[in-house]
Every structure is written in C-alpha cells, then in structure tokens.
Amino acid sequence: MRFKSLAGGLTGLALLSALLPQAARASSADLVFVLNSGEANIQLLDGRSHEEIRRIPVLREVHHLTLTPDRSQILVGDSGGNEMLFLDPATGAVLRRERISNPYHLAFTPDGKRLVVTSLRRDQVDIYGWDGQALSLQGRLRVGDMPSHLAYSPDSRFAYVTLQGERSIAAVDLDRREVAWTQEVGRDPAGIHWHDGKLLVGAMGQDFISVVDPGTHAVERRITVGRGAHQIFPSPDNSVIYVTSRVDSRITALDPKDLSVKRVYETPGGPDDITFDPQGRLWATLRWVAKVGILDPATGEMQTVRVGRSPHGILYRAADPALAQDARATLPQPR
C-alpha cells in the first residue's frame, strides 16, 4: 500500500507508524522503564531515541522493580498504593495488578523460588513463594525500624536487609523465617550487595560503604565514596562495581578485585538507581532534578533526559534478547 504525503509533511512510513497501536510500536523498541515516585506513574522511554512513549498511571508511589526469574514479567511495587503491578517487558502493557502490603524494595532469590519484599513504612519483611505465575505469602517478619534494601546469599538461604532506622543490617533466615543476626554498619544504610563472599552496604547518612563478613558478622573495613552513599551495581561483565552517592552527586567506580576506587564521575542531580544498555552505558535516575542521566563510562560524558518528579527505579530492556544486558535489573545477583 502507498501513502500520499500529507500537508504537514507526514510521509507514508511516518503515517503508518502513527497509526500503529502504542504497544505494537513499543514491542520493536528498546524500552526504558522509569519509576517516577513523585508523580505516581511509570514512564516508558525509547532507549534509542530517548523519546517518551507513554506513562502508566499507578495509585500512589512506585519505587522499585524487578524481573521475574524467566524475565517474562516486570514486577513494580507501588508502596503507597499497596499494590504490585505485573508488566510485559516487551511492550510495557499492564498484565495484572495485585494487592500487596507496602512493597518498597523487592527481589527474587537466586534460585527463583521466593520473592522477598521490604516494607519501609510498616517495618516488616514479607516472604512470598513463587511458582512462575503467582505469589503466595509464606511469612511476615518484624525485623526492625525501616527495612529498606535487600540482598541474598548465593544459596538463597539468607536475605540481608538494611534497617535505615537502626544503622544496621539484619540477616533473615528464609527457611526458618526468623532474624539470625544483626550488625551495625553506619547511619541510614540503604543499598546492599553480595560480592565475593562479602556484603557491601551503602551508608546513606554518611559517605562510605561498609564491607561486612557474613560469617563473622564483623565490619572489616569502610570505603569512602561520597556523602549519601546509596546504591551498588556491578557492570554486566562484572569488571566494575558502581556506587551512587546522592548528596555529593557522584558515581564511584570500584575495582571488584580489591574494592579500590578506579574513577569518580561527577553526576549532578542526586544519582540513585542504575541500569545498563547494550553499549555498556549507565542510565541513572537523578532523583533531585527529574532527569535520567546517560553516562558513557569510557569518556565520562553524560547526557540527560527529562522525566517525571523524583525518579527512582529504572530498567533498560533491549528489544533484541541477544543484546539484553538487564539481568541485574535493580538487584544484582550474588557471585
């Protein structure tokens, strides 16, 4: 079929694109999911053109998201709305919504059998079973004040939860459904990551990450990265560990071998969460300026894209599965 050019200059190809449903267009694009916690929506960007595709309204306040173990769905926690949204990663379509108690941070265990959800406002940690399609509540624990982020032991036995109100982390035995131990790590601990048998914990109220031995529970050392040390993300090839510092507005690159500082990227706007595109660039939510920064780690150059207020969680989903680099969406797998 041939289309005539319109007066406004819309050619046949452009007109065909305009007539296609949004979901159909989205399925052929690299999608970037941005959770605008200050605007009650999920924003979809085209990963290549950086243009906005659409926004998905939520009830109140979304913060974090994770892929299902088979990567067929994205789970988004609406903590203020007490709801979990299940999205199609290829199109962004909402598959279903479920009532869930205050889902703040969430991640599947490495074996894919459980989903653990932290409730920052209700001081609880919920353990759900996962059969590949549905969640079933297995247990609810009171672990301490303001449970925030979480990480896992490689065997899926323990979930490690940061307690922002107690300067501590709690080790939760998922089989026994009880707190096995706690350890003080610094003021307002947030991001936590298992790395080579150690736990790395960001002290958001200070300027360092603590290195904790989960066997002895001891803090072995502290690594200065900048005020507001928040989240921790390894690169897709595990050659670098990136730490965001929201107050000093920087991203610090650590050597995974000895955790020494390799490079510091000044990142104005309060960098928070990170995802990676197929080219290895970092897409970071800039919490204070309603933007996403796209950082080339080789050159240090960064471009920005305007998004909604207070962007938090983010996920880059490549249309070509062979190029997908999103295995560590928001919570890297332990190694």
UniProtKB/TrEMBL annotation:
Organism: Roseomonas mucosa
Domain YNCE-like beta-propeller residue range list: 21-315
Signal peptide annotation: 1-26
Recorded superkingdom: Bacteria
Keywords for the protein's UniProt record, in alphabetical order: Signal
Protein name: Cytochrome D
